[in-house]
Design a protein that fits this description.
- The complex is a heterodimer.
- Chain A is α/β, with parallel strands linked by helices.
- Chain A has helices at about 1-5, 10-20, 75-85, 100-110, 125-140, 180-190, 215-230, 250, 280-285, 295-310, 315-335, 360-375, 390-410, and strands at about 45-50, 50-55, 60, 115-120, 140-145, 170-175, 195-200, 230-235, 260, 270-275, 340-345, 350-355, 375.
- Chain A has 2 domains: about 1-75 and about 315-410, Alpha-Beta Complex (Aspartate Aminotransferase, domain 1); about 75-310, Aspartate Aminotransferase, domain 2.
- Chain A is built from 13 helices and 13 strands.
- In chain A, the strands form 3 sheets. Chain A has a 7-stranded mixed beta sheet with strand order 4-10-9-8-7-5-6, with helices on both faces.
- In chain A, helix 11 packs parallel to helix 13 (about 390-410).
- The longest helix of chain A has 22 residues, at about 315-335.
- Chain A is globular and about 60 Å long.
- Chain B is built from 12 helices and 10 strands.
- Classes of the chains: A alpha/beta, B alpha+beta.
- The interface of A and B includes residues 12, 22, 34 and 148 of A.
């Protein structure tokens, strides 16, 4: 830890100051308590392409991409240019800009089932609003979701325990991923009162391997929703645009009624969106939606540029290839040193963990050792690829991973 | 059931008194010289029993105090309570809640000495001002608060709806809580084990997550809810090593102890 103290000295100094004036020092998903306190940087200074530098000057190949938003690489010139051009005209004014219309039209043209789009700033803005739309449309109360799935920080879905009332979740019920019996039980118990089912396209809980949908899982859910008049909401906040530019449902052969996007929509600029079927248009118009900065044009200009580049450059294919190279290489490197590992999730949004590591200690040491060598993997949260990661970056990362495995093996971990 | 919505359950509270508070007498006797002096060479045992319910036995053995689960044979005194409310009222100091002395009621001297002992325990656990005024008192308060909170996890897991709701969302595993530099200052909880085992002292196997308070001052502040524990983790004052979500969730579950014992 002493060498870490030197390596992250500036981070720790800043955190000590932060702890005096900011609850948790750093709160939420970026809290050091959720990762590896003392063994990973706390503060970043700058970023470019697939790399970032912490406040102590340490450089990392970035496999977290700001927890997902950065899909084209940090500071992508064309996206930044589009945002800057819009910024030079207006940042926050009394009315939306024309770009809002252009972006909505573009999104509706991308996502085949959709007829309309709305915008917010964060994922929670859209998931919570979508739940309200489902209730308004159906005039029912119940929402079904997968246990352990993350849909944001609002009381109905936050993974936290504090500040909640029973009433907040009185009409939210959990079933288990890939467990149709548990889904059908809820369906039977609350038949006629279920407004919506909200799910991510694949299950990506923190601290655990990701799980892909079993054959028949999505078709069963989709058919049940159609039959029962339930609104199917796809929370594509995390995976959206990385698996398929048309929305992740296109990968898994089903169609939701509402879809929520955020992270990869604007390459790091604050924007989220929800798109829906025309049948939900009236309900969508009734559920109040607004925020102080939600009409701000620069993020929308960034999103339009970002999405157009993704389409032109076939980013989905690039991410898949790069992700496959990374995960294949990591599995091989681990096996070379005697470690059995599990690669989970789609290659563009992968996660790697050690088999027989229930306490996550090996995972944590591995991520800390790799970070010391110059690549950033989160030990407890799925990773993200960007279009800026080149095969050379992956080769360099695999070299760091090989060294990290060797150190672990030498230390008997 | 969320912590704000959940009201304390009398059955859980009585079990907290019997299996999380009374065991603290052992540490009190080990750490507090005045208690040892008061006990002298006394050898006796007192049973606290709820009619048709759980019981615990306290053994006073020449300056040592031992806690046992259940009703011991050959006890010097057996104190019977008609129900959870009765025992809870007794432990919270209500004068009307005297137990039924089914055996040993003539041992007035013993009961008087135990009463004095219980008053001292209450003052330490409650954090009475005269206790917290000294470094030794704060140390004792932190140690006993940790032991109580750790051992309480068993009763909370068995019966408290809010704690159960939190525990359901946590991965199974063994968690240990330790104050660094302090002897015998580790409690552990095996979440997901049969009967939700807890213990004070060395855990039965390597914990899946270790929570270590850097010193007494940190433990004192954390256990009293007076510091931002997530900031303390980032600053290295609290070290969490291993299965992070288990530690975070147990922290919330353990806070239920305060909701119970303040009543």
């Amino acid at each position: 830890m002493d060498s870490n103290a030197d390596r992250y000295r500036r981070s720790h100094e800043l955190f000590a100051r932060a702890a005096q004036v900011i609850p948790c020092g750093i709160y939420g998903h970026a809290s050091p308590a959720a990762a590896l306190p003392g063994a990973l940087p706390y503060y970043a200074d700058r970023a470019e392409g697939c790399r970032y530098w912490d406040v102590d000057g340490n450089e990392y190949i970035d496999f977290l991409c700001g927890y997902g938003p950065v899909i084209l690489g940090h500071q992508h010139p064309a996206v930044e240019e589009a945002a800057a051009r819009q910024l030079s005209k207006a940042l926050c004014v009394n009315h939306p800009g024309p770009v809002m219309v252009e972006l909505a039209e573009y999104l509706v043209s991308l996502v085949d089932f959709s007829a309309w789009a709305v915008f917010g700033k964060n994922g929670s803005d859209m998931t919570t609003w979508s739940v309200q739309v489902a209730r308004e449309h159906t005039q029912r109360r119940k929402i079904l979701k997968v246990a352990g799935a993350y849909h944001g920080i609002d009381p109905w879905c936050t993974p936290g325990h504090a500040g909640l009332l029973d009433e907040d979740r009185a009409h939210v019920h959990d079933f288990n991923w890939n467990d149709l019996e548990s889904f059908d039980r809820l369906l039977a118990r609350y038949r006629g009162d279920i407004a919506g089912v909200i799910m991510t396209p694949f299950h990506h809980p923190a601290f655990k391997p990701s799980q892909m949908p079993a054959p028949g899982f999505w078709p069963h859910i989709e058919a049940a929703c159609r039959r029962e008049g339930i609104v199917l909401i796809l929370d594509d906040i995390r995976a959206g645009f990385r698996l398929d530019l048309r929305g992740s449902h296109a990968c898994f052969g089903f169609e939701p009624d509402l879809i929520c996007f955020c992270k990869a929509i604007a390459n790091g600029h604050a924007l989220s969106a929800a798109l829906g079927r025309k049948e939900l248009r009236v309900a969508a118009s009734r559920v109040f939606l607004t925020g102080s900065y939600w009409n701000s044009p620069p993020a929308m200009a960034a999103a339009l540029a970002c999405l157009q580049i993704q389409k032109q450059q076939e980013v989905v294919s690039t991410l898949r290839r790069t992700g496959e190279m990374l995960m294949h290489g990591l599995l091989q490197a681990g096996a070379k040193h005697g470690y059995a590992m599990l690669a989970s999730g789609p290659p563009a949004v992968p996660f790697l963990c050690f088999i027989d590591d229930p306490s996550s200690r090996r995972q944590q040491v591995f991520c800390a050792e790799v970070a010391r060598r110059g690549a950033f993997f989160h030990p407890h949260h799925n990773w993200f690829l960007s279009a800026a990661h080149t095969p050379e970056d992956i080769v360099a990362t695999l070299g760091m991973a090989d060294d990290a495995f060797a150190v672990m093996r030498n230390e008997g971990l | 059931m969320t912590p704000i919505s959940a009201r304390p359950d009398p059955a859980v509270l009585s079990r907290l008194y019997l299996s999380a508070v009374l065991p603290c007498l052992t540490d009190l006797a080990e750490q507090d010289g005045t208690v040892v002096d008061d006990l002298g060479q006394l050898r006796a045992s007192i049973v606290f029993s709820i009619l048709g319910g759980p019981a615990a036995t306290i053994r006073l053995q020449r300056g040592q105090i031992l806690w046992e689960d259940g009703c011991s044979r050959n006890a010097s005194v057996i104190l019977m309570f008609l129900g959870d409310h009765h025992l809870n009222a007794f432990f919270s100091g209500n004068k009307w809640a005297a137990p039924l002395p089914v055996w040993g009621c003539w041992r007035v001297g013993l009961l008087a000495r135990f009463s004095k002992l219980a008053e001292r325990l209450e003052a330490v656990l409650d954090g009475a001002q005269q206790v917290l005024d000294s470094a030794a008192g704060r140390r004792l308060h932190a140690r006993l608060s940790l032991i109580t909170a750790g051992l309480a996890l068993h009763a909370l897991a068995q019966g408290d709806a809010a704690a159960q709701n939190i525990l359901r969302s946590l991965p199974p595993g063994l968690a240990s809580f330790t104050i660094a530099g302090e002897p015998r200052a580790t409690v552990w909880f095996d979440h997901g084990s049969a009967d939700n085992q807890v213990g004070w002292g060395d855990p039965p196997r390597r914990p899946d997550v270790c929570i270590v308070f850097a010193d007494i001052a940190t433990a004192y502040a954390a256990l009293r809810g007076e510091i931002d524990t997530l900031a303390a983790v980032g600053c290295g004052q609290i070290r969490v090593e291993g299965l992070v979500p288990l530690a975070e969730g147990l922290n919330f579950a353990m806070e239920r102890v305060r909701a119970y014992l303040k009543h």
